[in-house]
Amino acid sequence: MDVEVNGEERRFPEGTTLAGLLEQLGTARRGVAVAVNGTVVTRSEWQNVVLIDGAKVDILTAVQGG
Amino acid sequence: MTSDDPLVIGGQKLDSRLIIGTGGASNLAVLERALVESGTELTTVAMRRADLEGGSGVLDLLRRLGISLLPNTAGCRSAAEAVLTARLAREALETDWIKLEVHADDRTLLPEPFETMDAAEQLVADGFTVLAYTNDDPVLALRLEEAGCAAVMPLGAPIGTGLGIRNPHNIELITSRASVPIVLDAGIGTASDAALAMELGCDAVLLSTAVTRAEDPERMAAAMRNAVDGGRLARLAGRIPQRFWAQASSPPR
User: Fold this and answer.
1) Minimal Cα distance from B24: which residue of A?
2) B99 catalytic, yes or no?
3) Which of B124, B197, B199, B207 suits a disulfide with B184, CB 3.0-4.6 Å?
4) Residue A66 falls inside a structural domain
């Protein structure tokens, strides 16, 4: 299935969870937040969210600014 | 040094009245020296899409320096965007502090008052400690305080302009009737601007560009620290009234 991660199409096996996706991408565990289709998913829920084809995942972190 | 009450925002005590923004620094080493020299205890960061590999250098730096994080909603154009960004920041950074800023357009970066107000109400209801960036409008400042903002942050001039405090009387109107901390945010160009903000009764100053894009950021950070301290002392000391005619300071013959 195809999932859009930070605006880029990527392919993952069917049934991949959000936690699985982050692990495959090697995303840092600390200091990031994730939204799926525009809704924040809390850290404790990452393992319970199963992604579907066409899902839009945004992974955000803090950068210099303000 | 004479005694002064510490600044308290949202129940947290801050010994430094200088809040630094981390934007604009040419690299992290320069930023680190400037932050240390400024004595700041609270700095802003922005939320952006993560590089998929590697962590966030600025977060590691701020944690190492023991400086608290104030995530902002810079770049947001609507209340809905700002609320989502705030929730993402809370999740990522484990803080319920948010610098709320909703910009009206890219040329002025002025705060959009209606969206800011709407977002402030939603975020306060959701348990955030909201520090709201706003125009130098005394009426709006009071409304934001009534909405439950922990601090109200009027601009001196548009972000990044370095034009100083364009309407000192408005800032003084805001500070004179506020019961939450007032932080002068945006427009500071040099040390005298920061000192003036404090003399006008602001409780703190938030600045970034003035330091990070100065020729010598570390030295400008020191200048700002001293300016904020000097301005605060002058405010507490009580300045003399301004007079039209001279008044001799030596005894008459």
Assistant:
1) A65
2) yes
3) B197
4) no
pLDDT of the residue at B52: 58
Q: Cβ neighbours of residue B213 under 8 Å, at least 6 residues apart?
A: B24
Q: Cα–Cα–Cα angle for B126, A27, B53, nearest 5°?
A: 125
Within 13 Å, how many C-alpha atoms sit on residue B109's CB side? 16
* pLDDT of res. B50: 81
CATH code: domain of residue A11: 3.10.20.30
**Mean pLDDT across A21-48:** 88
Domain count, chain A: 1
In tens, the pLDDT along B33-70 reads 999 999 999 999 999 888 755 556 888 899 999 999 99
Domains of chain B: 7-49+56-235 (3.20.20.70)
Active-site hit among B17, B90, B99, B235:
B99
- A vs B, Cβ pairs < 8 A, gives 105
pLDDT in tens, B68-87: 999 999 989 999 999 999 99
